[in-house]
């Protein structure tokens, strides 16, 4: 089998998505920790367009963008499928994988304060409501009885979004307002592969708090 | 190739995202009913029930089952009607195509929008950013005739519809794509030799009239 390497960064939810998928497929890989903000020469060579992690390198060939990497993993190692096999349900899964991704309101919520942050918070709540009611519905996982790529794509909500809310000092996801999502989060982090591959919560909180403080620090004129 | 049932496309003439689906269906020889949404009127009941989350076109209904989001729809079309294949054969090739589709979706329309929505003079940075994005796409194209290689494929389908808005961007931006990015322009011309593309794309001057009208409605003129 050709060599598999993953360039990641320990606090990144995006690198964790790839780790979870590789582990679920039982793929052996070498993990390379990028020392941000000092990006390695290799990373810049492998992802010249975005210069970001994660990058998966398979047999020397790089693939960037975590959601693209997830589909590549699914196609290359098709055992233990993480997407429905019929085209229609696969399309529905892809819709939910993309839902709420890369939205500006998450960045605003984390980096801004006051009115901008409130507006972002409102948009996040709307998005989460739809995700819970229409994406998850009554299922245990987005994938049904077992997790799949949709769960992995939203797998940053436990731990990462939780620590972000703590760092910002605004609690958006209450168990009472999002009971099903909350139950999903608890079930998700109990899945063996997930449980064994999460960053240390305290370390993550410190990292998020540090970033948050930098974003809201008053600019010295 | 069998139609495999009833295919309906909810669309509107100006939307590059709808054009993507039209081209994909035409490439596969799929017969479908196009139902046009009124750009200035209210949204149809069918649109609101088929895409309650985003309430946007395109929506593909295959045997009554709705699918939303243009890249998801195009991938579904490729998987459901297998000939000719739109995505590359290898998993790596498909990952590259999806990476660039993601890049296009994140960057192209917004960069163009920032130019044609400007009140007064368009900042140089906006023009520079747009041209830089096209240059990056030229890099991905390389010496190939199409993004897919020798044959017109998925990535060409994702990108070419956005070029129907370039005349408007050029008029407001005060530059020409064929001068700034000749390779990109040559690729555009190759695509416009194809009947399925010509049939799906509106006259760029008609798009320009729409943009002018839109700007007036927003109180920009």
UniProtKB/TrEMBL annotation, chain A:
It catalyses: RX + glutathione = an S-substituted glutathione + a halide anion + H(+). GO terms for molecular function: glutathione transferase activity. One of its GO terms (cellular component) is cytosol. GO terms for biological process: glutathione metabolic process; toxin catabolic process. It is an enzyme of class 2 (transferase). Keywords: Cytoplasm, Detoxification, Transferase. Pfam families: GST_C, GST_N. Its EC number is 2.5.1.18. It is found in: Cytoplasm, Cytosol. Residues 86-211 form the GST C-terminal domain. Residues 2-81 form the GST N-terminal domain. The keyword Cytoplasm applies. The keyword Transferase applies. It comes from the Eukaryota. Belongs to the GST superfamily. Tau family. This is glutathione transferase. It comes from Dipteronia sinensis.
TrEMBL record, chain B:
One of its GO terms (molecular function) is glutathione transferase activity. Signal peptide: none annotated. Residues 90-214 form the GST C-terminal domain. PANTHER family: GLUTATHIONE S-TRANSFERASE (PTHR11260:SF547), GLUTATHIONE S-TRANSFERASE, GST, SUPERFAMILY, GST DOMAIN CONTAINING (PTHR11260). One of its GO terms (cellular component) is cytosol. The keyword Cytoplasm applies. This is Glutathione S-transferase. Keywords: Cytoplasm, Detoxification, Transferase. Is involved in the conjugation of reduced glutathione to a wide number of exogenous and endogenous hydrophobic electrophiles. It catalyses: RX + glutathione = an S-substituted glutathione + a halide anion + H(+). PROSITE patterns: GST_CTER, GST_NTER. Belongs to the GST superfamily. Tau family. GO terms for biological process: glutathione metabolic process; toxin catabolic process. It is found in: Cytoplasm, Cytosol.
């Amino acid at each position: 089998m050709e060599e598999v390497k993953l360039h990641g960064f320990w606090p990144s939810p995006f690198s964790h998505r790839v780790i979870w998928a590789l582990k679920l497929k039982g793929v052996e890989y070498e993990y390379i920790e990028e020392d941000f903000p000092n990006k390695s020469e290799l990373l810049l060579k492998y992802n010249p367009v975005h210069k970001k992690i994660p990058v998966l390198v398979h047999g020397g060939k790089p693939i960037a963008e975590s959601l693209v990497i997830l589909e590549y993993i699914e196609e290359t190692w098709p055992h233990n499928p993480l997407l429905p096999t019929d085209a229609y349900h696969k399309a529905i899964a892809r819709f939910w994988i993309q839902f709420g991704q890369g939205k500006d309101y998450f960045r605003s919520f984390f980096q801004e304060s006051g009115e901008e942050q409130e507006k972002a918070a409102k948009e996040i709540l709307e998005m989460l409501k739809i995700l819970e009611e229409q994406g998850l519905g009554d299922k245990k996982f987005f994938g049904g009885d077992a997790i799949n790529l949709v769960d992995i794509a939203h797998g940053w909500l436990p731990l990462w979004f939780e620590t972000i809310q703590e760092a910002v000092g605004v609690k958006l996801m209450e168990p009472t307002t999002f009971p099903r999502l909350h139950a999903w989060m608890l079930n998700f982090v109990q899945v063996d592969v997930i449980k064994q591959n999460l960053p240390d919560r305290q370390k993550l909180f410190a990292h998020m708090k540090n970033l948050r403080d930098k974003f809201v620090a008053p600019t010295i004129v | 190739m069998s139609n495999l049932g009833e295919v309906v496309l909810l669309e509107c003439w100006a939307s590059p995202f709808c054009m993507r689906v039209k081209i994909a269906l035409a490439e596969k020889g799929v017969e479908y009913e196009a139902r046009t949404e009124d750009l200035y009127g209210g949204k149809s009941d069918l649109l609101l029930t088929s895409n309650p989350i985003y309430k946007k076109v395109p929506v593909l209904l295959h045997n009554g089952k709705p699918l939303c989001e243009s890249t998801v729809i195009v991938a579904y079309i490729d998987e459901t009607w297998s000939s000719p294949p739109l995505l590359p054969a290898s998993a790596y090739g498909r990952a590259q195509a999806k990476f660039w589709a993601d890049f296009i979706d994140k960057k192209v329309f917004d960069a163009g929008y920032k130019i044609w929505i400007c009140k007064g003079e368009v900042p140089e940075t906006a023009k520079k950013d747009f041209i830089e994005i096209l240059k990056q796409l030229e890099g991905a194209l390389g010496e190939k005739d199409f993004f897919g290689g020798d044959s017109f494929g998925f990535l060409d389908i994702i990108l070419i519809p956005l070029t129907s808005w370039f005349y408007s961007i050029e008029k407001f931006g005060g530059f020409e794509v064929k001068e700034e990015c000749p390779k990109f322009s040559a690729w555009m011309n190759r695509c416009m030799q194809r009947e399925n593309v010509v049939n799906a794309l509106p006259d760029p001057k008609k798009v320009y009239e729409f943009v002018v009208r839109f700007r007036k409605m927003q109180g920009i003129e």
